[in-house]
Write a sequence for this structure.
């Protein structure tokens, strides 16, 4: 049985999606799998389809960070070319589902620093990897409230039955290890 907090959060997320800005409804960002807008500058989702990238560009996304290995079922081998052809900056960090690492997170932080001030979409296959990395970024780099940020991450993971965060020890361990790293020296 889900706790009242989980149910309230799920209701809040559904409400947030229902009242999303007219701009996002017009450009179809809500059609992205497991889409979430953390701020005007930071978005996450599952793997966009080939024909969704022009819509993403039209929504003002200036950079994409793809955390899915090319071997994931919906991956596009030519995603870098598709995105580059739309004049969107692109970084691919293929994070192994079974073994996310501190090096993966360091590469992610480097990409986020490179794209500072840009509207960034972080994606992976279903949005789980992306939401975990964004959670860590928000808490560690942006000083977001841990509990609220974690509730959003968990709700996004719960989108994929069988892959809920609490059922993924490698991801629980990765997040805990990364949270325990010394705080960044500059924000």
């Amino acid at each position: 049985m889900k706790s009242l907090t989980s149910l309230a959060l799920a209701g809040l997320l559904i409400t947030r999606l229902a009242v999303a800005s007219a701009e996002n409804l017009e450009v179809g960002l809500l059609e992205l799998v497991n889409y979430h807008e953390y701020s005007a500058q930071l978005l996450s989702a599952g793997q966009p389809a080939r024909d969704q990238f022009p819509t993403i560009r039209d929504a003002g996304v200036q950079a994409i960070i793809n955390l899915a290995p090319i071997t994931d079922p919906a991956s596009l081998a030519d995603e870098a070319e598709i995105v580059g052809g739309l004049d969107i900056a692109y970084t691919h960090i293929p994070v192994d589902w079974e073994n996310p690492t501190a090096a993966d997170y360091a590469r992610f932080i480097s990409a986020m620093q490179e794209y500072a001030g840009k509207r960034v979409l972080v994606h992976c296959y279903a949005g789980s990897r992306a939401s975990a990395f964004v959670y860590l970024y928000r808490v560690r780099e942006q000083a977001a409230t841990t509990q609220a940020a974690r509730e959003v991450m968990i709700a996004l993971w719960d989108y994929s039955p069988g892959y809920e965060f609490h059922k993924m020890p490698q991801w629980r361990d990765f997040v805990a290890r990364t949270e325990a790293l010394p705080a960044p020296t500059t924000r």
The radius of gyration is 16 Å. Residues 4-18 form the longest helix (15 residues). Confidence is low (pLDDT under 50) at residues 1-27. DSSP finds eight helices and five strands in the chain.
